[in-house]
Amino acid sequence: MKWHNSGLGHLSAVWSGRCERRSLSRVMSKQGICSRREAEQLVRAGKVKVNGKLASSPDMLVALDARIELVGQPTPLPKQHLHYIVMNKRKGVTTTSCDELGRATVYDDLKSFLSAEGITERLFAVGRLDKDTTGLLLFTNDNDLADFLTAPEHQVPKTYLATLHQPLSEQAIAQLQHGVTISVRGQSYFARPVAVQLHSRRKVELTLTEGKNREVRRLFEALGYSVDALIRIGFAKLRLDISQHPPTLNGHPLDSGQCLRCLPQDIWSLG
């Protein structure tokens, strides 16, 4: 199954509940990619990416769940079963495999579901939701799909329902529709939702295709509004129906903190 022709050879990420870090060469060996000596050669030749970025040294410390890719696919990839799991992320958990402050993570909720389903392959989250944002979060071991969904040029839609602390003014609504300049890590970006729908003056549904860090919250902050609650109700073709109690996905109940299997064609059109 190919979602785009990237020219990259992808290897599945490893999930671990432990906050351990090891040298990249050792992690590559542990994941069964190659020997440590071969890993050193590949890294120095510029053939290894870690979490989407070119590796700088075989001695760099990486998490055991690091997502490692080989550029150019120099060796055939082992066959693996691909899985697609959708979670209705609950509030208060971080989107990380280990939290240095000891806080609960999405993988704590995912682990029990994988065990009950008999899934032994190791999955990673496609993108992130901040600790206080709830809603749709996809997990998979399909690197091609994950790369496709997170590549900015593919403009994959993400829809959010924001509950604001105070009602929006007419001027703020117009500004939101025309776009707002926001600051992300010291850099300014022009962010414009591709769709804005008012459920009420305090409840706003908006769709974005970029996915900058905390973009929705930053949009409203730039307009002088704070967000009391934020839920992602749409991701790619997936749609969480929050009018139902509990919420549903494709007609199946998906309560807060729960997971469901889905098919790749439920997420995006096959290419």
Automatic annotation (TrEMBL):
Species assigned in the record: Candidatus Thermochlorobacter aerophilus
Family: Belongs to the pseudouridine synthase RsuA family.
Keyword line: Isomerase, RNA-binding
GO MF: RNA binding; rRNA pseudouridine synthase activity
UniProt xrefs under InterPro entries: PsdUridine_s_RsuA/RluB/E/F_cat, PsdUridine_synth_cat_dom_sf, PsdUridine_synth_RsuA/RluA, PsdUridine_synth_RsuA/RluB/E/F, PsdUridine_synth_RsuA/RluB_CS, RsuA_PseudoU_synthase, S4_RNA-bd, S4_RNA-bd_sf
Protein name, per record: Pseudouridine synthase
EC code: 5.4.99.-
NCBIfam families (alphabetical): pseudouridine synthase
Keyword Isomerase: yes
BP terms from Gene Ontology: enzyme-directed rRNA pseudouridine synthesis
Limits of the RNA-binding S4 domain: 22-83
Pfam families: PseudoU_synth_2, S4
Gene3D superfamilies tied to this protein: Alpha-L RNA-binding motif, Pseudouridine synthase I, catalytic domain, N-terminal subdomain, RNA-binding S4 domain
Domain of life assignment: Bacteria
Keyword Isomerase: yes
PROSITE patterns membership: PSI_RSU, S4
